[in-house]
Each structure stands twice: as C-alpha cells, then as structure tokens.
Amino acid sequence: MRDVTALIIKFVTCLIAYAVGLDLFFNAAWTDVVSFSVLTTIVSYLMDRIMLSRIGNRNSLIADFLLSYLVVWIFGSVLLNSYMQIAWGSVISAVIITVGEFFVHKLIVNTRHEDEGNHDRGRAPNRLAYGMEMSEENDPPKTK
After folding, report:
1. Alpha-carbon distance 132 to 115, whole Å?
2. 43 CB contacts (<8 Å, ≥6 apart)?
3. Of 1, 29, 64, 125, which sees the most CB atoms within 10 A?
4. So where does this one cross the membrane (predicted)?
5. In this structure, which long-range contacts are made by residues 79-87, counting pairs with CB atoms below 8 Å and at least 24 apart in sequence?
6. Is 28 helix (H, G, I), strand (E, B) or coil?
7. Measured distance CA(126)–CA(129) in Å, rounded
8. What residues have CB less than 8 Å from 39, skipping those under 6 apart?
9. Could you tell me if residue 131 is inside a domain?
10. How many domains does the chain have?
11. What is the pTM of this model?
C-alpha cells in the first residue's frame, strides 16, 4: 500500500512540476506534460527502489534531479519548440521534483524500516559486504 502511495505522490509531484516548468511559463501541450510525468515517475520509482538503500538519500536526490533534468532536455528537444523552453523548463521542473522527492524518500525509508522488523533475520542484508581475513601460515616449530 505504501508503494502505491509513493507512486501517487511521485506522479502528482511530477505533474505539478512539469505543469509549472513547461506549461505555465512556456505553453507546452498537456500530452507532453503527462508523458514526461509518467516516464519520470516510473524510472524514478525504479531507481529509488534499487539505489536509495545503497547510495543514500543525498546521492539519490542528485540522481533524481539529473533524471528529471535529462528527461526534459532529451525528449524536449524532440517535442518542444524553443531551446529557452527546454533549458528553463528542465531546471524549474527538476528543482520542484527534487524537493518532492525528499519527502517521498522519507516515506520509502520509513516503510523499509518498519518492514525490516517484520521479517526474519535469516535473509541476506541489502548491502553486501565481503570480508576477508589474511594471515600467515604458522608452521609448527620443527623439533630435532
């Protein structure tokens, strides 16, 4: 249930961000706003499920900023008319999405901490840590 809540919050945040960044200032079509929102929501959610526990909140926010910036920059060059619309629209929407993602990450992290208490401790941890011990072979002393 929390995954659905996180997806809805992500989609609404993306929809608002792209509506402000692209449609409010630069008169983009609503189909562009909705398609950018759906694409960013799906890719961002998958990235958060994979990377949030491994690289932390700050780095995941940076990745979300870059994702939303690049979605508008790459696909906007095909769909949108002017370069000013692409440049400023991508910056404005990326900032708004990053602020929204901060709260979504808190929700996801709190959900994971609650779920970890319910599972048994027999499963592998999220972070893999490989350890290795090194020592010299101690031969028994030779007796004559």
Report:
1. 31
2. 67, 71
3. 64
4. 29-47, 59-80, 86-104
5. 79/32, 80/22, 80/26, 80/28, 80/32, 82/26, 84/26, 85/22, 85/25, 85/26, 85/28
6. coil
7. 9
8. 71, 75
9. no
10. 1
11. 0.72
Average pLDDT estimate for 19-48: 87
Quick one: CA torsion of 9, 10, 12, 16, rounded to 10 degrees?
Answer: 130
Look-up of token digits 């990053």: 98
Handedness of CA 62, 65, 71, 74 (dihedral sign): negative
- Label residue 139 left, alpha or beta by phi (over 0 means left) and psi (-120 to 50 means alpha): beta
Structure confidence at residue 111 (pLDDT): 74
At 69-119, the pLDDT tens digits run 998 888 877 777 777 778 888 899 999 999 999 988 888 887 766 655 555
Q: Could you give the CA distance from residue 30 to residue 136 in angstroms, rounded to a whole number?
A: 68
At 95, the amino acid letter reads V
Would residue 90 count as lying in a domain?
yes
Tokens 């909705």 identify what position?
34
CA distance readout (Å), 51 to 42, 56, 59, 108: 14, 8, 9, 12
Give dist(CA 117, CA 123) in Å, integer: 12
In a domain, 52, yes or no: yes
Domain extent, residue 72, equals 2-114
Phi, psi dihedral angles at 27 (to 5 degrees): 60, 60
